[in-house]
From TrEMBL:
Coiled coil: none annotated. It is found in: Cell membrane. It is a peripheral membrane protein. GO terms for biological process: peptide transport. This is Dipeptide ABC transporter (ATP-binding protein). InterPro entries: AAA+_ATPase, ABC_Ni/Peptide_Import, ABC_transporter-like_ATP-bd, ABC_transporter-like_CS, Oligopep_ABC_C, P-loop_NTPase. GO terms for cellular component: plasma membrane. The lineage of its organism: Bacteria, Bacillati, Actinomycetota, Actinomycetes, Micrococcales. The keyword Transport applies. Belongs to the ABC transporter superfamily. GO terms for molecular function: ATP binding; ATP hydrolysis activity. Pfam families: ABC_tran, oligo_HPY.
Length: 343
């Protein structure tokens, strides 16, 4: 059973202003390769507040992980380049911060569970050692205190018999338990912002639901800002407060989760919704969005979604729609969002 424990005391030089933790503004990321320039992120804007969960949703290649890597400051530059934009944490721009200061934000302030989490545990060290190392390295704790913290965290993420298993190796745990260990490591330094990049992809459906509710519990208990990255609208319905839908490196729709489920304002979001099975609509036909996302070296002019959009008109092939307000707390980037909303 989970033991409710207070996070380890952590004093920070960063204080959120009015609860605002993270502000991403006009973020652009390019990859300069021998084949050309891939425009992976093309003007992304969003913010995350304390105690809020923002889900970032989109198909493979839409720029979800690159956005997270830009926030964490872990993009390899080159080939990556950030020609424009800012990533403010408690009002401080991480993109212009000296690297030594920025490094200190990774872990204690903003932490990330990586997309390939199951393979990012080191197979040659016991899991408890790997968690304890966070406390030794960042908090200067001695070995026995750090191990005690590791056990406490393993208990918190509901690893059965944590005390006995603290010295076990990653291969001795199931996929779901290894993901719990990755979560324990990610929250070990009591971060204000947690980014979880596809935290449940490799897991079966029951374990997915358990991991999601663990993340939700931890977020509420610690009042963290949570960014939940996924390509599956179905898994975030109960956890997210808001959803940002990405397509070809831009946010094409942003809204409260309930509003998006009730009525999408963008044809792409509608396509994503139509492609998930719903318990309330038994026997329905599921439809997938036809076509493929664009080559990021040759993004089509106008609306990037136009070659796949059944509503596309001439204006869509000519003018790029801006992300504009289309209702309370909601924005969409579509010339015909009113028609989509009223359909
Ligand atoms: N190091 C790199 N060099 C060149 N292109 C890259 C590099 N890293 C990412 N990209 C490109 O950036 C685009 C966005 O990638 P990203 O990993 O953010 O997608 P994603 O939305 O996370 O997809 P997935 O759901 O598959 O994880 C992709 O087209 C990808 O090929
Ligand atoms: S702007 Fe046009 S092509 Fe783009 S999503 Fe809207 S209707 Fe479709
Ligand atoms: Mg990804």
């Amino acid at each position: 059973m989970a033991t409710a424990t207070a996070p380890t005391a952590h004093t920070s030089e960063y204080q959120p202003q009015d609860g605002l933790l993270l502000e991403v503004e006009d973020l652009h990321v390019e990859f300069h390769t021998r084949y050309g320039v891939a425009k992976a992120i093309n003007g992304v804007n969003f913010s995350v507040r304390q105690g809020e969960c923002l889900a970032i949703l989109g198909e493979s290649g839409s720029g979800k992980s690159v956005t997270a890597q830009a926030i964490m400051g872990i993009l390899d530059m080159p080939p990556a380049k950030i020609p424009q934009g800012s990533v403010k944490y408690c009002g401080h721009d991480l993109l212009t911060m000296p690297e030594d200061r920025r490094r200190k934000t990774r872990g204690p302030e903003i932490s990330m569970i990586f997309q390939d989490a199951l393979s990012s545990l080191n197979p040659t060290f016991p899991v408890g050692w790997q968690i304890a190392e966070m406390f030794r390295e960042h908090r200067g704790m001695n070995k026995s205190d750090a191990y005690a913290q590791a056990v406490r965290l393993m208990e918190r993420v509901s690893i059965p018999a944590a005390k006995q298993r603290v010295k076990a190796y990653p291969h001795q745990f199931s996929g779901g338990m290894r993901q719990r260990i990755m979560i324990a490591m990610a929250i070990s330094l009591d971060p204000a912002v947690l980014i979880a990049d596809e935290p449940t992809t490799a897991l079966d459906v029951t374990v997915q639901a358990q991991i999601m509710s663990l993340l939700q519990e931890l977020q509420q208990e610690r009042h963290m800002g949570l960014i939940l990255i996924t390509h599956d609208l179905g898994v975030v319905a109960d956890v997210a407060d808001r959803i940002a839908v990405m397509y070809a490196g831009r946010i094409v729709e942003q809204a409260d989760v309930r509003d998006i489920y009730a009525k999408p304002a963008h044809p792409y979001t509608k396509g994503l919704l139509d492609s998930i099975p719903r318990l309330d609509l038994k026997g329905q036909e599921l439809s997938a969005i036809g076509g493929l996302p664009p080559n990021l070296m040759h993004i089509p002019p106008g609306c990037a979604f136009n070659p796949r959009c059944t509503m596309a008109q001439d204006i869509c092939r000519r003018d790029r729609p801006e992300l504009v307000e289309v209702g309370p707390h909601r924005k969409a980037a579509c010339h015909f969002s009113e028609e989509v909303l009223n359909a």
